[in-house]
Amino acid sequence: MTRRRWPGVTARTAALRVVAERGGMGVTLVFYVLVVVVLASLWRVAVGANGGNVAGYGAAAITWYVVTTEATVIALNNRLIADTGRDIGSGAVAVELLRPASVLGVRVFSELGRCLPRLVACAVVGGVLALVTAGAPPRPATLALAAPSLVLAVACNIVAQHAFAATAFWLRDAGSAWFLYQKLIFILGGMLIPLEALPGWLERTASLLPFRAMSYAPARLASGHLEPVLLVQQVGWLVVLVGLAGAAFRAGERRLQVVGG
Amino acid sequence: MRGLAATFRNALAEVRSNRASFVSQISVMVLNDIVWVFFWVLFFRRVGSVRGWDGRNILLLLSVLTAAGGIALGVLANARRIGTMAVDGQLDAVLALPVPPLAHVLLRRVEATNVGDLVFGVVLFLSAGSPTPARAAVFVFAVAAASVLLTAFLVLAGSLAFFAGRNEAGELGFHAMIVLGAYPIDIFAGAAKVLLYTAVPAAFVSSVPARLIEDFDAGSAACLVAVAGVFAFAASASFTLGLRRYTSGSVWTR
Predict the structure, then answer these.
(1) Is the pLDDT at A22 greater than 60, yes or no?
(2) Integer CA distances (angstroms), A237 to A48, A154, A155, in order
(3) A258 CB near a chain B CB, below 8 Å?
(4) A·B CB contacts under 8 A
(5) CB contact under 8 A, A55 and B46
(6) pLDDT (tens digit per residue) in B191-217
(7) Of B39, B168, B183, which is closest to A193 when you measure between CB atoms?
(8) Residue A193 domain-assigned?
(9) Which of A118, A178, B130, B146 has a Cα-to-Cα distance from A260 of 20 to 30 A?
C-alpha cells in the first residue's frame, strides 16, 4: 500500500466489510426507523399543538430535521470512544505503530469507511420515511447541501471522538466517557431538539462548540434552510478537530508504554 | 433458593469489589439520566403540553422507566445477554449446577452502570413525583410489575436466538422497548399504539405505570399484572424449550 493510497484502501475495505455484514446493517436500519418514527411523531404532535410551528419548524421541516440528525448519530459506532480508549489503555494500539501510516489516520479512515454505507442507507430510508409521513422537503434544493454536510458531520464526530479517546494514553481508560459525549451531541449538537428551540443562553453556548457541526448543520439544511455558511463552519471545525486529535495522538504515542511489550 | 440467594450475593460482592469503579459507573448513568430530564424540561417549556402529557407526568414516566430498567438491566443484567449466551454457547456452566438455569443466569451478574438507573429512578420519584405513602406504594408496585415485564420481554426476545441461531431479534427487542418506552404512549396512533400494548408492550413499562401513580385505577393495575404474568410465563417457557436446542460452546462463563 503506497503512502498515497492507504486512506482510500482503508476506508473501502472497512466499507465492504459493513456491506457484507447484512445482519448488522439490518439491525441498524430497524433501530434507525424506530427512533425516527418515535421522535418525529413526538415533534409533529408538538408542532400540531402549537399552531403548526415550533421554533420556526413546521411539521415537514421538523420531520426532515429528525431523519437527518438521527442518521448522523445512528450511522456511527456510538461506543467509538470506549473502543478506542480500550485499545489505547490495553496497549493493543502499539501494534499499529508498526504500520507505515498514521495510527490516527488509519483509525479515522477505517471508521469513516464503516460509517458511510450505514449513513447512505439511513439517509435513503429516512428520506422515504419523511416523504411518506410528512411530505416533500420544504426546500428540495437544500438537500444538495445537506448531502456533503452529512459526510462532514460524521467526519467531525469521528475525529472528535478520537481526540476524546486519546485521554486514555494518560488515564489508561476512556471508560464511560462515551456516554456523556453522546449526550452533548443530543442537546448541544441539536440531535433531540433543534438549537432554535433551546433557551437563548444555551443556544449561544451551543453555537460556540463543535457539536453543532456533528448533527445540527446537515439537519438544518435538510429542513429547508438555505444556509451554506453551515458547511464552511463544519470544514472549519473539522480542521480544528483534526489538529487537536493529531496533537493528542502524537503526544500519546510518545508516552505509550506497553506492559510486557 | 439458598443457591440462588448465594449466587446473587456473590454477584453483588463482585460488582462492589472495586468500589471506586462502582460509584463512578453509577454516577455516569445518573448524569446520563439527568440529561434526559433536561431534554424533557426544555421540550415542555417550549411546547406546553402534548396530548395530556406535561413535564410533571413525563418525570413520573421517566422515574418508573429508569427504576424498572435499573432492575432489569442492572440487577438482573444477564436478561439482556440471553441471546448472546445462547448463540455463543455460554450456558455450559449454568447447566451443570443444581439450580433453575434461568433464575441463576439472571441473578449471576449485576451491572453497576444500570444500577445507576435504579438509583436515579427512585431519587427522581422522591424529588419530582410528589411522594405520599399511597403514591409511593403504587410506585413500588408499578416498578415491580414493569421490571418483571421488561425482564420477561428481554428473555423472550433473547430466547429466540436458540431457534434462529442469531441474536438480532434480542438486540432489536431491547432497543425497541427502551426507545418506545421512553416516550408517552399518546404520541402514537393506530397500529403503532396497538403494537405498544401487545407485541412490544412498552406502554406497560412506562406510560401505564406512570398513569397509575397519578390516578390509580384497579382495572389498569390488574391489566398490568396480567400482561407481566403472561410475558413471564412466555419467557420461562421459551427459555426452557430453547435449552433443548442449545449447543455447547465449551465456554465457562459468568
Answers:
(1) yes
(2) 35, 12, 10
(3) no
(4) 79
(5) yes
(6) 888 888 988 899 999 999 999 999 999
(7) B39
(8) yes
(9) A178
C-alpha distances (whole Å) from B204 to each of A148, A205, B58 are 42, 38, 15
Please check whether residue A261 lies inside any domain of the structure: no
Which residues contact residue B30 at a Cβ distance below 8 angstroms, ignoring those fewer than 6 apart? Answer: B116, B119, B120, B123
Closest CA to B202 of B28, B65, B51: B65
pLDDT recorded at residue A261? 43
Averaged pLDDT, A53-81: 93
Does any domain span residue A120?
yes
**Domain count within chain A:** 1
Residue extents of the structural domains in chain B: 2-243
A55: domain range?
6-255
A window 162-221, beta carbon within 8 A of B: 175-176, 179-180, 183, 186-187, 192-193, 197-199, 202
Distance CA A222, CA A141 (A): 9
- The verdict on residue A63 lying in a domain is yes
Closest chain A residue to B21, measured at CA? A175
Cβ proximity of B151 and B35 under 8 Å: no
Best of A179, A184, A185, A211 to substitute, by most chain B Cβ atoms within 10 angstroms, is: A179
